[in-house]
Design a protein that fits this description.
Chain lengths: ~150, ~150
Amino acid sequence: MPRVSVFFIRTALLQLALGATMGGLLLAEKGLRLAPWLWHLRPGHIQIMLLGWTVQLACGVAIWILPRLDAAGSCGCLALAWLSYGALNAGVALAALHAPLAAARDADDLGWMLLLAGLLYALAAAAAVGYLWRRVLPFRNLPRPAGPERNPS
Amino acid sequence: MNLQARYFVKTALAQLLISVLLGGLLLANSGLRLHPWIGTLLPVYYHLLMVGWATQLIGGVALWMFPPLSRERPRGDERLGWFAYTALNSGLLLRAVAEPLQLIRPSAWAGWALALAALLQVLAIWALALALWPRVKGRPGRLTKGVS
Protein backbone atom coordinates (compact mmCIF):
# COMPACT_ATOMS: atom_id res chain seq x y z
CA MET A 1 0.00 0.00 0.00
CA PRO A 2 1.59 3.35 -1.00
CA ARG A 3 2.32 5.79 1.80
CA VAL A 4 -0.24 8.28 0.47
CA SER A 5 -2.94 5.59 0.74
CA VAL A 6 -1.89 4.88 4.33
CA PHE A 7 -2.31 8.60 5.09
CA PHE A 8 -5.66 8.84 3.29
CA ILE A 9 -7.12 5.72 4.97
CA ARG A 10 -5.79 6.36 8.48
CA THR A 11 -6.98 9.98 8.34
CA ALA A 12 -10.37 8.70 7.13
CA LEU A 13 -10.52 6.33 10.13
CA LEU A 14 -9.65 9.20 12.50
CA GLN A 15 -12.36 11.36 10.94
CA LEU A 16 -14.84 8.47 11.18
CA ALA A 17 -14.12 8.23 14.91
CA LEU A 18 -14.32 12.02 15.34
CA GLY A 19 -17.49 12.37 13.26
CA ALA A 20 -19.19 9.47 15.07
CA THR A 21 -18.28 10.98 18.45
CA MET A 22 -19.81 14.30 17.39
CA GLY A 23 -22.89 12.47 16.10
CA GLY A 24 -23.15 10.53 19.35
CA LEU A 25 -23.06 13.77 21.35
CA LEU A 26 -25.83 15.19 19.13
CA LEU A 27 -27.99 12.09 19.52
CA ALA A 28 -27.50 12.05 23.28
CA GLU A 29 -28.39 15.75 23.36
CA LYS A 30 -31.54 15.01 21.41
CA GLY A 31 -32.52 12.53 24.11
CA LEU A 32 -31.38 14.24 27.29
CA ARG A 33 -31.40 17.94 26.28
CA LEU A 34 -28.44 18.88 28.43
CA ALA A 35 -26.37 21.15 26.18
CA PRO A 36 -28.18 22.84 23.26
CA TRP A 37 -24.94 24.49 22.07
CA LEU A 38 -23.84 21.04 20.84
CA TRP A 39 -26.07 21.61 17.80
CA HIS A 40 -23.37 23.93 16.41
CA LEU A 41 -21.43 20.71 15.75
CA ARG A 42 -24.05 19.36 13.35
CA PRO A 43 -22.70 20.94 10.11
CA GLY A 44 -19.21 19.72 11.04
CA HIS A 45 -20.55 16.22 11.74
CA ILE A 46 -22.04 16.07 8.23
CA GLN A 47 -18.88 17.42 6.53
CA ILE A 48 -16.61 15.05 8.44
CA MET A 49 -18.73 11.97 7.74
CA LEU A 50 -19.34 12.68 4.04
CA LEU A 51 -16.03 14.20 2.93
CA GLY A 52 -13.56 13.34 5.67
CA TRP A 53 -14.66 9.71 6.00
CA THR A 54 -16.36 8.33 2.87
CA VAL A 55 -14.73 10.41 0.12
CA GLN A 56 -11.30 10.23 1.76
CA LEU A 57 -11.49 6.47 2.28
CA ALA A 58 -12.60 5.95 -1.33
CA CYS A 59 -9.65 8.00 -2.61
CA GLY A 60 -7.17 6.12 -0.40
CA VAL A 61 -8.45 2.71 -1.45
CA ALA A 62 -8.58 3.72 -5.14
CA ILE A 63 -4.93 4.86 -5.09
CA TRP A 64 -3.98 1.56 -3.48
CA ILE A 65 -6.07 -0.86 -5.52
CA LEU A 66 -6.54 0.50 -9.05
CA PRO A 67 -4.30 -1.14 -11.69
CA ARG A 68 -0.64 -0.19 -11.45
CA LEU A 69 1.10 1.52 -14.34
CA ASP A 70 3.63 -1.21 -15.04
CA ALA A 71 4.53 -4.73 -14.05
CA ALA A 72 6.85 -3.46 -11.31
CA GLY A 73 3.78 -2.09 -9.51
CA SER A 74 4.57 1.59 -9.98
CA CYS A 75 1.93 4.14 -8.97
CA GLY A 76 3.64 6.90 -10.96
CA CYS A 77 4.13 10.40 -9.61
CA LEU A 78 1.98 10.82 -6.52
CA ALA A 79 2.24 14.62 -6.21
CA LEU A 80 -1.39 15.14 -7.30
CA ALA A 81 -2.57 12.53 -4.79
CA TRP A 82 -0.73 14.34 -1.99
CA LEU A 83 -2.21 17.65 -3.15
CA SER A 84 -5.67 16.09 -3.02
CA TYR A 85 -5.02 14.79 0.51
CA GLY A 86 -3.90 18.20 1.78
CA ALA A 87 -6.70 20.15 0.11
CA LEU A 88 -9.43 17.72 1.21
CA ASN A 89 -8.40 17.78 4.85
CA ALA A 90 -7.89 21.53 4.94
CA GLY A 91 -11.38 21.92 3.41
CA VAL A 92 -12.96 19.58 5.95
CA ALA A 93 -11.24 21.37 8.83
CA LEU A 94 -12.45 24.79 7.66
CA ALA A 95 -16.01 23.60 6.97
CA ALA A 96 -16.25 21.79 10.31
CA LEU A 97 -14.86 24.67 12.36
CA HIS A 98 -17.00 27.38 10.78
CA ALA A 99 -20.24 26.91 12.72
CA PRO A 100 -18.73 26.51 16.23
CA LEU A 101 -16.38 29.49 15.65
CA ALA A 102 -19.17 31.67 14.29
CA ALA A 103 -21.34 30.79 17.29
CA ALA A 104 -18.51 31.38 19.77
CA ARG A 105 -17.68 34.80 18.29
CA ASP A 106 -21.34 35.64 17.79
CA ALA A 107 -20.30 37.18 14.47
CA ASP A 108 -21.21 36.67 10.85
CA ASP A 109 -17.86 37.56 9.29
CA LEU A 110 -16.57 34.02 8.81
CA GLY A 111 -18.29 33.24 5.52
CA TRP A 112 -14.88 33.20 3.83
CA MET A 113 -14.16 29.93 5.66
CA LEU A 114 -16.96 28.16 3.79
CA LEU A 115 -15.95 29.75 0.47
CA LEU A 116 -12.36 28.62 0.96
CA ALA A 117 -13.53 25.15 2.03
CA GLY A 118 -15.57 24.86 -1.18
CA LEU A 119 -12.57 25.89 -3.29
CA LEU A 120 -10.34 23.40 -1.47
CA TYR A 121 -12.89 20.61 -2.06
CA ALA A 122 -12.91 21.44 -5.78
CA LEU A 123 -9.09 21.43 -5.85
CA ALA A 124 -9.00 18.11 -3.96
CA ALA A 125 -11.46 16.51 -6.38
CA ALA A 126 -9.64 17.85 -9.46
CA ALA A 127 -6.28 16.60 -8.15
CA ALA A 128 -7.72 13.17 -7.28
CA VAL A 129 -9.34 12.80 -10.69
CA GLY A 130 -6.17 14.08 -12.38
CA TYR A 131 -4.10 11.44 -10.61
CA LEU A 132 -6.53 8.49 -10.76
CA TRP A 133 -7.59 8.94 -14.40
CA ARG A 134 -4.55 7.19 -15.91
CA ARG A 135 -4.82 4.34 -13.39
CA VAL A 136 -8.22 3.25 -14.75
CA LEU A 137 -6.90 0.64 -17.15
CA PRO A 138 -8.13 -2.52 -18.86
CA PHE A 139 -6.71 -5.94 -18.03
CA ARG A 140 -3.45 -6.41 -19.87
CA ASN A 141 -0.41 -8.66 -19.82
CA LEU A 142 2.73 -6.77 -18.95
CA PRO A 143 6.25 -8.13 -19.36
CA ARG A 144 7.66 -8.92 -15.95
CA PRO A 145 10.80 -6.94 -15.15
CA ALA A 146 13.90 -8.62 -13.83
CA GLY A 147 14.25 -8.69 -10.05
CA PRO A 148 13.19 -10.88 -7.16
CA GLU A 149 10.32 -8.83 -5.66
CA ARG A 150 7.41 -7.94 -7.92
CA ASN A 151 4.29 -8.89 -6.05
CA PRO A 152 2.22 -5.82 -5.22
CA SER A 153 -0.22 -6.41 -2.39
CA MET B 1 -14.46 -14.16 2.62
CA ASN B 2 -14.31 -14.77 6.38
CA LEU B 3 -17.38 -15.16 8.61
CA GLN B 4 -17.07 -11.72 10.23
CA ALA B 5 -16.90 -9.91 6.88
CA ARG B 6 -19.93 -11.89 5.65
CA TYR B 7 -21.95 -10.79 8.69
CA PHE B 8 -20.99 -7.15 8.11
CA VAL B 9 -21.77 -7.22 4.38
CA LYS B 10 -25.05 -9.16 4.59
CA THR B 11 -26.34 -6.96 7.41
CA ALA B 12 -25.34 -3.90 5.36
CA LEU B 13 -27.31 -5.24 2.40
CA ALA B 14 -30.36 -5.83 4.61
CA GLN B 15 -30.11 -2.28 5.92
CA LEU B 16 -29.83 -0.93 2.37
CA LEU B 17 -33.12 -2.62 1.59
CA ILE B 18 -34.80 -1.31 4.74
CA SER B 19 -33.50 2.23 4.27
CA VAL B 20 -34.57 2.39 0.62
CA LEU B 21 -38.08 1.25 1.60
CA LEU B 22 -38.07 3.89 4.34
CA GLY B 23 -36.84 6.50 1.86
CA GLY B 24 -39.65 5.57 -0.52
CA LEU B 25 -42.19 5.95 2.29
CA LEU B 26 -40.73 9.37 3.19
CA LEU B 27 -40.88 10.48 -0.45
CA ALA B 28 -44.47 9.31 -0.78
CA ASN B 29 -45.31 11.09 2.46
CA SER B 30 -43.78 14.36 1.28
CA GLY B 31 -45.87 14.15 -1.90
CA LEU B 32 -49.14 12.76 -0.55
CA ARG B 33 -49.01 13.77 3.15
CA LEU B 34 -49.96 10.32 4.36
CA HIS B 35 -49.34 10.90 8.08
CA PRO B 36 -47.42 13.59 9.99
CA TRP B 37 -45.57 11.00 12.12
CA ILE B 38 -43.88 9.46 9.08
CA GLY B 39 -41.67 12.57 8.78
CA THR B 40 -40.06 11.72 12.15
CA LEU B 41 -38.32 8.80 10.41
CA LEU B 42 -36.09 11.10 8.33
CA PRO B 43 -33.01 11.03 10.63
CA VAL B 44 -33.42 7.25 11.01
CA TYR B 45 -33.44 6.92 7.20
CA TYR B 46 -30.25 8.99 6.83
CA HIS B 47 -28.42 6.97 9.47
CA LEU B 48 -29.58 3.55 8.27
CA LEU B 49 -28.27 4.50 4.84
CA MET B 50 -24.98 6.13 5.83
CA VAL B 51 -24.09 4.07 8.92
CA GLY B 52 -26.05 0.82 8.55
CA TRP B 53 -25.37 0.49 4.83
CA ALA B 54 -22.33 2.52 3.71
CA THR B 55 -20.13 2.44 6.80
CA GLN B 56 -21.00 -1.17 7.66
CA LEU B 57 -20.30 -2.32 4.09
CA ILE B 58 -17.00 -0.45 4.05
CA GLY B 59 -16.12 -1.99 7.42
CA GLY B 60 -16.92 -5.51 6.21
CA VAL B 61 -14.99 -5.18 2.97
CA ALA B 62 -12.05 -3.56 4.76
CA LEU B 63 -11.93 -6.33 7.40
CA TRP B 64 -11.87 -8.81 4.54
CA MET B 65 -9.51 -7.12 2.07
CA PHE B 66 -7.05 -4.90 3.94
CA PRO B 67 -3.50 -6.27 4.12
CA PRO B 68 -3.13 -9.07 6.70
CA LEU B 69 -1.57 -8.10 10.00
CA SER B 70 0.72 -11.11 10.23
CA ARG B 71 0.90 -14.69 9.02
CA GLU B 72 -0.18 -16.02 12.42
CA ARG B 73 -3.02 -13.53 13.03
CA PRO B 74 -3.99 -12.12 9.63
CA ARG B 75 -6.96 -10.17 11.01
CA GLY B 76 -5.53 -9.21 14.39
CA ASP B 77 -7.91 -9.32 17.35
CA GLU B 78 -11.25 -10.34 15.82
CA ARG B 79 -13.10 -9.57 19.07
CA LEU B 80 -12.90 -5.86 18.16
CA GLY B 81 -14.71 -6.54 14.89
CA TRP B 82 -17.42 -8.60 16.60
CA PHE B 83 -17.90 -5.95 19.26
CA ALA B 84 -18.19 -3.28 16.55
CA TYR B 85 -20.75 -5.36 14.65
CA THR B 86 -22.92 -6.03 17.70
CA ALA B 87 -22.76 -2.52 19.14
CA LEU B 88 -23.32 -0.79 15.79
CA ASN B 89 -26.42 -2.77 14.92
CA SER B 90 -27.95 -2.77 18.39
CA GLY B 91 -27.30 0.99 18.59
CA LEU B 92 -28.93 1.57 15.21
CA LEU B 93 -31.92 -0.60 16.11
CA LEU B 94 -32.40 1.21 19.42
CA ARG B 95 -32.13 4.54 17.63
CA ALA B 96 -34.64 3.51 14.97
CA VAL B 97 -37.19 2.82 17.71
CA ALA B 98 -36.40 5.58 20.21
CA GLU B 99 -35.80 8.56 17.92
CA PRO B 100 -39.28 8.72 16.35
CA LEU B 101 -40.82 8.07 19.78
CA GLN B 102 -38.83 10.93 21.30
CA LEU B 103 -39.90 13.25 18.49
CA ILE B 104 -43.58 12.25 18.68
CA ARG B 105 -43.96 12.02 22.46
CA PRO B 106 -40.84 12.98 24.44
CA SER B 107 -40.22 10.85 27.52
CA ALA B 108 -37.40 10.06 29.91
CA TRP B 109 -37.35 6.46 28.70
CA ALA B 110 -36.91 7.41 25.05
CA GLY B 111 -34.34 10.09 25.98
CA TRP B 112 -32.14 7.62 27.86
CA ALA B 113 -32.60 5.05 25.08
CA LEU B 114 -31.26 7.62 22.61
CA ALA B 115 -28.27 8.32 24.84
CA LEU B 116 -27.57 4.57 25.07
CA ALA B 117 -27.94 4.23 21.27
CA ALA B 118 -25.43 7.06 20.86
CA LEU B 119 -22.96 5.40 23.23
CA LEU B 120 -23.26 2.03 21.47
CA GLN B 121 -22.68 3.53 18.03
CA VAL B 122 -19.70 5.63 19.13
CA LEU B 123 -18.08 2.63 20.84
CA ALA B 124 -18.76 0.50 17.74
CA ILE B 125 -17.05 3.00 15.44
CA TRP B 126 -14.05 3.33 17.73
CA ALA B 127 -13.75 -0.47 17.88
CA LEU B 128 -13.96 -0.73 14.08
CA ALA B 129 -11.32 1.98 13.64
CA LEU B 130 -9.06 0.22 16.16
CA ALA B 131 -9.55 -3.12 14.39
CA LEU B 132 -8.63 -1.66 11.00
CA TRP B 133 -5.86 0.76 12.05
CA PRO B 134 -2.92 -1.71 12.26
CA ARG B 135 -3.92 -3.27 8.94
CA VAL B 136 -3.51 0.01 7.04
CA LYS B 137 0.15 -0.33 6.18
CA GLY B 138 2.60 -0.54 3.34
CA ARG B 139 5.15 -3.22 2.76
CA PRO B 140 8.27 -2.49 4.80
CA GLY B 141 11.06 -0.88 2.83
CA ARG B 142 8.95 -0.03 -0.23
CA LEU B 143 6.85 2.82 1.07
CA THR B 144 8.97 5.66 -0.25
CA LYS B 145 8.93 4.44 -3.85
CA GLY B 146 5.22 4.92 -4.47
CA VAL B 147 4.97 1.14 -4.74
CA SER B 148 3.36 -1.23 -2.24
